[in-house]
Specification:
homotetramer; alpha/beta; Alpha-Beta Plaits; TIM Barrel; four-stranded antiparallel beta sheet; 35% helix
């Protein structure tokens, strides 16, 4: 259920609607729009009677939402959401570019990475302090030490920090240090972690699970929004199929599909999406052309010495070329269409 | 690395090997066998020199293990493991049969379920008190109240209790109440949860992830064993493919594949594996014929009124038929082959 | 559209219905049943008016068929079809067992294979004279020479011959020599070949395509039936998924699914379905337990010297064990259920 | 085996090499290059001794080719191949754009389609006269009548004609009328049809099969080249996966992967690749950005009245927009990289 307020509705009108929702035992979500505000209702197990709200002052209409996801839906909020990560808009006029190594390996490595991202015109730095690894015997990340290096890199370069929280234990520290909390593909349906991320004060970057349908992907985002955190960036990173020429199959058609169904911005990870260095540039360009709001790309000062994912990491020079090419395509599309990249 | 002791090695010999492993900064795992004991080494990032151990008293040989998984490997432990859940052997002479509803819905429902399982000759009762749900707005389980009902069902029937822990928060309570902790498919690579399960005092039932390779499945089990809990039951529950005549594609060939590579018992969930009530019986029979050590089957006293998964739940009569048919096949195979069902 | 005749309808009544169908520009298909005869109508691009037939003498009712497949549907013909291959019933009381090498390699090889199949109690001999190969540079089969050797093997042993027709050129010869024409997985949607097989005088064994849905599989069979050949045996042989522990993923749940939707018998090929010798026996047992009407299994007198598929071929001893075990399971199921294996 | 000639080798030197190959019972394939000519050898079942050729006059070296595909491999021919379809280069400086309806439905429809393609700046017209349909009861195409309409459309507009041959029967007529013979996804491993196409005088457009690996795709092309027709255009059209937001999953990473391994041009079909009209434009742009040499797009003068595939067909206005946007991206990439679009 979505209660759409009239354009001229006052804050008091909106407050009254929220109060009424709470009295009924449900949870209100205020969704500001350019023209008018809507109030989403969650927590109801069955349908709610629109008549409960249509007589309240300032209410334009109360409409049933037909999809299983509500708060992430474009039905609920027609305008595209711009998520700000340390002031960097994701889903806005320009593509957002996030680069950096798979894992924070040392102070020197992450500072060198940050300088390379900055030099290439990137705005965000990635790097894992906590790494989900298939083997219990593999390097699991530097932990808080890694977070401190990331913070230092931010200080030196001004880049916003994107780093992964792998469980409800580590997320407190990640929330403290990072500008954006990444939820990895393996955790896309770790519902406890999603709920906790929904109570975080920082934006969340949610990666699509390896065999996730679009509906499951949006429902995972819904978990975060339903707890009150509306700053969610979706990320396609390849799905698992029979195809063996790439590590995963990058499913770029999910980009326009998300943009039709949801107001949330979607970016692409062409590094995990292909798993091969020489495929990263062409698939990055393709992502931007398909309408992605940004890219998250693995880059390492010395890929051949990386502790993990070296085979899919660009070096600084390749990253700079990627950044330049992607911006050129984004600029071309914007100039021809006269609409922001992140919009429909 | 695996240090294989001579048949006549003394406990003191074994203790010395363990001490040496710890001195080197690694972790020893004592693996008792019928003929002789082996000591697994984990925690080493690179290869360990066999010469470190081959001169110690009582050591037969020190061998490199070629697979990324060590403790779960049949190379490490040639004899099939029998896991006991409240005294019920899984992986032993007979098939283990676990039945019950998707979710614990009420005291009456779970007690009726338990009586039906018992009447059909089942040994274990399933039922979720914590439910991982795709939608944040769906029924999420009764929590500890559900666990109490399960405990009461155990008291009344003597059945062992299998129930899911969905996160590191709920696992403490689940460990207290249950006889076997289930890790669901969505959490197969929730490594924090796996580590915590590895420190639990109860056996663990680990379900294969929806797009998990066999190696990833075994590595997830390795996480549990690497923390000291060697009582792990693997469970095939269907994988995600293009096929649309069943909810998932039950991949029964993983049963003999697991039995070749690992000593751990593997059972099958034909309910989630097919997602359709009329496919459960034939696929249960097929599972036993393929060599599964047991079955976990959704059964509800009144499937048409189930809060979840009703379309794939058997009623008590169908469950009793399934139990009887499966036992007949298991008995036939045992009589013809003169080997325990769970063995190679 | 399906015109169902009354139980007491005469041949003349049926002939009149067929004539009326032809007058309307469609094609009649007489489908005899135990209780009464039905006449299927194909060739209509849109719906046909039931009133055209309901007034004719001997007609019980004219019903619309809701599935895209008509002639293969159980709605059209409720009784299970038994297909006879050189007198061997497939879909009847007992499981049909077909064995033999991937390819006919020499006279000696195929005669030795035939003797081994016969000795194990198998009824049908497989062996490719025309081989569809991924590489144009691989052995493509002996052609007619191979067919002659198969015919000689039949003479010596009495086994029925199942061999593949790879194109509309080779099918004439295959039809002459073979007792059952195999259409391979790669040709499941080679519609010209299907139509030609539909005009053949011999039964057809149709293998499921590597990424075929159940509906596409049944529609491919419908092509054959729509040309007048109602003797079609379906065959599950594994589908293509991400799973890498087997060459293909054997989708056994398609067996009960086919039996619900279609009257045609379905058998299983556990050799291609797994691609590994040590998985063939357990999956063969599982197939029979799941309700398959038979098996087609690769067996070679000397697998280690086979020109193709040696890694998945059984030797004669392993084949004999498989035959014996499978018959035991089929016998058990029949004795407990008191229904023919091939029936629902 | 590949015999690489010296730069200064004479035609007589090359002829002698070919003769020697034939004497050995193999087949020579002359592959002209910019710097020097190579002669491929096929027809050998095992390895050939390089010494057979290295002493011949004009021979630089004889090298073993490590991939199962030979003639399609970039190892064999480092320069990218440009295929000319009625004078239109595919794989050259500019992207080739092919548009038109799924099926030829009438003279008016195909002439209107051709005019719209021409007006949008497209160079090639598509349209099926023979349609492979899942159901035997669906519209199967106009046959030769459809081919005549296509020929008339070519006369009126000068567009090259691309149309499908579905079997070895129809390919003779298709070869007569068309400028490029399409082999559909379902026929990608119809080896008889591939061989026949390899003897055709016209270029071939080969679509990737629904569950084809890259290696199988290239081997299918190898079948065509091995018969002497080197004018093959590869086409990605989506593969089958679990994802359900699009009809198929367009696997764009195959574009750079093909360009690394093969000299053949690869184009993309975003219409079948997505199966939804509103995804065609973004995925067309993505295809060009990923490096595709061209596009084949379904366009219908009145999509809502199309006999097939209307839901994924653009109207003429949408097609013109697509053409203009794609050319702009191609132009941008060319200007920045200073290399032809079709090159590496």
């Amino acid at each position: 259920m979505l209660v759409v307020m009239k354009a001229q509705a006052s804050p008091a009108d909106i407050a009254l609607v929220c109060e009424r929702i709470q009295v009924l035992g449900f949870r209100p979500h205020i969704i500001p729009g350019e023209q008018r505000t809507a109030v989403g209702i969650t927590g109801n197990s069955g349908p709610v009677d629109p008549a409960e709200f249509e007589q309240l002052h300032g209410v334009a209409e109360a409409i049933r939402v037909s999809k299983p996801y509500k708060l992430v839906s474009r039905e609920t909020k027609p305008e595209s959401t711009v998520v700000f990560v340390k002031g960097v808009p994701v889903g806005g006029e320009e593509i957002a570019l996030c680069g950096g190594p798979c894992a924070v390996e040392s102070r020197d490595q992450i500072l060198a990475s940050a300088r390379a991202v900055k030099a290439a015109g990137g705005q965000l730095l990635r790097g894992g302090a906590y790494k989900p690894r298939t083997s219990p015997y593999s390097f699991q990340g530097l932990g808080e030490e890694g977070l401190r290096y990331l913070a230092e890199a931010r200080e030196q370069t001004g880049l916003g920090i994107v780093t992964e929280a792998v469980d409800t234990e580590s997320i407190d520290l990640v929330e403290d240090y990072a500008d954006c909390i990444q939820i990895g593909a393996r955790n896309m349906q770790n519902f406890s972690l999603l709920r906790r991320a929904g109570r975080a004060k920082k934006p969340v970057l949610l990666k699509r699970g390896m065999s996730s349908t679009l509906e499951e992907f949006l429902m995972a985002a819904e978990y975060i929004l339903s707890e009150g955190n509306y700053n969610v960036i979706l990320c396609e990173r390849g799905v698992r199929t029979f195809a063996d020429h790439s590590r995963n199959t990058l499913d770029l058609s999910v980009v326009p599909a998300v943009k039709t169904l949801s107001h949330l911005p979607i970016i692409v990870d062409p590094s995990h999406g292909t798993g091969k260095r020489d495929k990263v540039l062409p698939m990055a360009l393709a992502s931007v052309a398909a309408g992605a709001a940004g890219l998250i790309v693995e880059m390492h000062p010395a890929p051949e010495r990386a502790l993990s994912d070296g085979y899919q990491s660009l070096d600084p020079e390749e990253f700079a070329e990627l950044a330049s090419e992607c911006r050129a395509i984004a600029e071309l599309l914007r100039s021809r269409r006269r609409v922001p990249v992140g919009a429909l």
